[in-house]
Amino acid sequence: MSTDNALRDVVIVGASLAGLNAAKTLREEGYDGSLTVIGDEREHPYDRPPLSKELLVGESAPTDIALPGAQDLAVTWRLGEPAVALDARRRVVRTADGMEIPYAGLVLATGSGARSLPGFAVGAPHVHVLRTMADALRLRAALSADTRLLIVGCGFVGIEVASSARIRGAHVTVVGLDAPLEPAGPLAGAAATRLAEQAGVRLHVGRTVAAARFTEGVHRVELSDGTQVEADHVVVAVGSVPNIGWLSGSGAELGDGVLCDEALRVVGVTDAVAAGDIVRWPNAAFGGRPMRIEHWSNAVEQGAAAARTLLRGDGATPFGTVPSFWSDHFGMRLQSVGLPRMADRFEVIAGTPEDGGFAAAAYAGDVLVGGVAYGMPRALVAVRIKLARSGVPLEPAGPMHVPPAPGTGQQEPGHRKE
Ligand SMILES: Cc1cc2nc3c(=O)[nH]c(=O)nc-3n(C[C@H](O)[C@H](O)[C@H](O)COP(=O)(O)OP(=O)(O)OC[C@H]3O[C@@H](n4cnc5c(N)ncnc54)[C@H](O)[C@@H]3O)c2cc1C
Predict the structure, then answer these.
(1) Going by DSSP bridges, is the β-strand pair 92-95/83-87 parallel, antiparallel, or unpaired?
(2) Domain 324-402 carries which CATH code?
(3) Is there an atom of ligand 1 within 6 Å of 112 CB?
(4) Residue 406 pLDDT greater than 60, yes or no
(5) In CATH, which superfamily holds the domain spanning 10-113+241-315?
(6) How many alpha carbons lie under 13 Å from residue 261 in its C-beta half-sphere?
(7) Closest ligand 1 atom, residue 130 Cα
(8) What is the Cα–Cα distance from 281 to 297, expressed in whole angstroms?
(9) Is residue 87 within 8 Å of 252, Cβ to Cβ?
(10) N or C terminus: fewer CB in 10 A for the chain?
(11) Which residue of 238, 296, 301, 322 sits with most ligand 1 atoms within 8 Å of its CB, as the best mutation to test the pocket?
């Protein structure tokens, strides 16, 4: 996009956190042309983290989790209609109902969807994933004091669902190949294991599903160590995949996400930028290492940064960020900053990991690569500031995927004060 005065007709595909923040920033920066947001869900943008927490427990209603500001933006919302193709040569986005929406500037923000697991077909009776409000309401309706729930996957979503399901009184079994919360490192994993077991969750770590049958309303599941589990409902929480299928043939370079340059311009498509879970780009804060980050704060920051790139054209600046995320489960808040999964050692800087809250700095060799804290958010501030100032000096090698993190001043929702 050459100049901000020339920019008319911006189309944003994906009506969620990154797309909304792009729309807000365009308006805040003075863009007064037409703005169309295309979304396949029927709802106006809402917040996803409560889907596995407050909404699932029943503490929040769908109206409580609407993202603020969507109604005041002079936007044409095209909701309930997925984009099915991008014709970059003709500069149109085609939707499932056959409409062609022309654009001068384009923001791709279609996020990610739940990864599926053989044996548990998406949409099959008593099989759940958790990505949308509809998913969360369906799962909530299935959870009662008698429900036997099997959760496959002990990442963030799996562990949060286990916590919420226990609050609703369900009997919960979790099976996972990796240690719980593996990307946050072994100290966090051990703490999550302890909390889950104290809450009455049966954990099978280092196991997977070997065979599964659904008969007479019951899932009969054999784990890889021969353990038999019966469950009324199964939640598949084995990670997510970027929603890029609709971009095939568009000229955009696809792989693990849509490849962008350092300022979030889509490689292979002119006048297009991307933001949020869908983006793989060379992260300046990590020596230009290509990354895709599936965290709330990244979607907020990238939405804003992508919008500025669209407005500034050649004058756009590189976007770099230190990942940071939080997870609430079993009455505790886990916080992570940087990439603790790269660490070969952790140094406890506050508290005691064995029996309560703690904070630890994560090192790869002598390089500070991140930090984690359980119930002690303030204890991470020094690590956070250091990483945000200096980044992490890495070779720009190998693509990375950072599953469900800079907390460069971004306040997380529901952030508890210590
Ligand atoms: C259950 C859950 C709990 C989470 N908890 C946390 C947490 O505690 N902390 C944290 O940091 N992060 C958390 N996250 C991650 C965080 O919510 C995401 O990183 C964030 O929502 C990404 O925003 P996004 O706009 O890039 O993508 P998304 O929020 O995935 O939105 C993409 C939107 O585009 C739509 N779309 C997809 N394809 C098309 C198409 N072809 N046409 C039109 N629309 C399309 C999707 O349906 C969706 O509405 C959680 C995520 C989930 C699912």
Answers:
(1) antiparallel
(2) 3.30.390.30
(3) yes
(4) no
(5) FAD/NAD(P)-binding domain (3.50.50.60)
(6) 17
(7) 1
(8) 16
(9) no
(10) C
(11) 296
Residue 286 has pLDDT above 90, yes or no: no
CA separation for the pair 18, 299 (Å, rounded): 5
Mean pLDDT of 285-291: 89
Domain ranges of the chain: 10-113+241-315, 116-238, 324-402
Best mutation site among 243, 291, 334 for ligand 1 pocket (most ligand atoms within 8 Å of CB):
243
Q: Relative to the CA of 246, which ligand 1 atom is closest?
A: 41
CA distances from 243 to 31, 369, 389, 415 (A): 27, 29, 32, 29
Q: How many CA atoms lie within 13 A of 183 on its CB side?
A: 27
Residue 210 has pLDDT above 80, yes or no: yes
Give the C-alpha separation, 174 to 151, whole Å: 5
- pTM (global) more than 0.90: yes
Does ligand 1 lie within 6 Å of residue 16's CB atom?
Answer: yes
**pLDDT reported for residue 70:** 92
Given a cut of 60, whether residue 370 has pLDDT beyond it is: yes
- For residue 43 and ligand 1, the question of a CB distance below 6 A is answered with no
Q: How does pLDDT run across 262-275, given as a tens digit for each residue?
A: 999 999 999 999 99
Q: Whose CA is nearest to atom 26 of ligand 1?
A: 276
Both tokens of residue 335?
């916080």
